[in-house]
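Pinned message: reference record for NADH-quinone oxidoreductase subunit J
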Amino acid sequence: MTGQMIFFIIFALIAITGAVLIIALKRISHRVVSMAFSFMAVAGLYFLLGAEFIGIIQIMVYVGAITILFVFGMMMTDHRNISFGPDPRKWQQALSFVGVATLLGLMLYGISTLDMHESTQPFVGSVEAIGLELYGHYFIAFLGSAFLLTSALIGAIVIARKEAD
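Predicted structure (tokens):
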């Protein structure tokens, strides 16, 4: 077993465990921490694939910005433990477990029987090429999305101020 495979298994287990803990934990603060660990593990998987740019973007956007956004949202809201009714029946839990296990088995079967041939031509791409595409050919679309996000932020502030008054 190679070192890359060992790191893949470690990162995959951290990502899966973090995703399961997001659902299973009761406190929102614990959920945010497990979400950050899951995002970091996915960034590690990107690094293992040789996609360093996407890994850095994963860390900056998801681990940094989205996790901080959740922390701010958690600090600014009143989050009590609210139950949504009685716990599901045992047969519902068993049925959902069987459904998830079946889906996992089908996915593993599909992945194991997938016939992927190796490419002899290496992937050639760099941050410079991405920047030239983004700021060259798609500059107007990039500016349009920036204006859209800015107007959404202003709209959220206006709605929040009206609600506070």
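Pinned by admin. Summary line: The two ends are 62 Å apart (CA to CA).
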